[in-house]
Amino acid sequence: MSGMNAARSAVSVLSCACAVALAGCDSGSDGGTATPPPASTETTGANVPLEQASTDPVVVSATMVETALLTDVRAARHGSFDRVVFEFRNGVPGYDVRYVARPVTADGSGAEIEVAGSEVLQIRMESALDADLTKESAPRTYTGPTRLDPDTPQLAEVVRTGGFEGVLTWVAGTRSRAAFRVTTLESPPRLVIDLRNG
Fold this sequence. Notes:
By secondary structure, this protein is mainly beta. About 15% of the residues lie in helices and about 40% in strands. The strands form three sheets. A six-stranded antiparallel sheet has the order 1-4-7-11-10-9, with no helix packed on it. β5 and β6 form a beta hairpin. The longest helix is centred in the N-terminal third of the chain and has 28 residues.
């Protein structure tokens, strides 16, 4: 009888061990050890080379009916590239981003605008404005500076050159004809231009 009891005990121990092992596998399949997805922030991928960057124009038509309202503009270095961000209240407008020849002129008036840097990357956004024309007195939606000095390896200056008939235009003065990439982000809506700086 004692031999039978020992055999039963061994089977019981083995069953418990299998149950523990299976439980461990189940917890792993539930994602307990899975790598979380990268956060969707402006600094994601800051130290990796830009994919599909080039010096060719990037043109995308608007998909929204209403005019996009600019609320913020910022520029900073992000590892191997410099980034310019245009943030909007209600959606991303259509855009045309390309290198242009000097002189740089103001939309509407045609007045010449000085821009630092050896090259000029124009960011033309349509339909977009930095004032809400649907409200009385057309309050400004962007009240920040119209000329930014990011002090980054590639960006010499970022300058507003006009807001005229639903077209909002800024230019980035760059230190060289750097390859760039254009992307959009959500929550809040943003148009993002990355330029290689190395």
